[in-house]
Amino acid sequence: MTATIILGIGLEYIDTVFQTIQNSSFSQYTIAGMKTLAVLFFLVNILKKYNEGIADKDGYSWGLSPGELAKNFAVVLLVIFSTQVLGFFDGILVAIEGQYRGTAPALLPLQLQDLPLEEEVGLLDAASMAMTLLYEALVTPLYGFKILAFMLSTILWILDLFIYLYF
Question: Which residue ranges run through the membrane (predicted)?
């Protein structure tokens, strides 16, 4: 019962936690400090590049190319509007999860859904399944890639379970 409740946590719960943290006063001060620090680093970088340009051996230059200036300015804009960007993507993901919550498959990877996990398998059934897998391995030229994809999907499935379990 507890596992069902824990695994039932979705993006709506995570969104509520995110909104609570974002609306706290400590978070507001931290975010404002981060944005101020980003602008300060941007201005220090401009001054540093300007001083490097003055000391250039080829003569006087600005020291900061327009591409570097645009890149630094884009990073500052991204930091300044980070809360709005995160809120935008959070709203999209919560809406998508709310719309498709009923169509989500079971929590097992597709390859594991074919195997009977809870029923008792006799010796003859296990041997026939093993021979089927052996035949498939010998006949299929890309069987190694299929096994690799299965292992990768299992690892990603476990990672997904931990993300929903702890976050």
Answer: 26-47, 73-96, 143-166
The predicted-structure confidence for 77-121, as pLDDT tens digits, reads as follows 888 888 888 888 878 877 877 776 666 555 555 555 565 656 677
Tell which of 50, 76, 104 closes a domain: 104
Name every residue whose Cβ is closer than 8 Å to that of residue 98 and which is 6 or more positions away in sequence: 12
pTM over cut 0.85:
no
Token pair, residue 123, equals 């010796």
Token readout for 7 is 């695994």
Type and span of the H or E element at 69 = helix 66-80
Task: Tell the burial category of 90 from Cβ atoms under 10 Å away from its Cβ (0-12, 13-18, 19+).
Answer: middle
C-alpha torsion angle, residues 41, 44, 49, 55 (rounded to 10):
-150
101 to 57, 71, 73, 87: CA distances (angstroms): 64, 39, 39, 21
- Which residues 6+ apart lie within 8 Å of 40 measured at CB? none
Residues 100 and 110 grouped into a single domain: no
CA triple 130-111-158, angle to 5 deg? 120
Domain residues for the domain of 132 are: 106-167
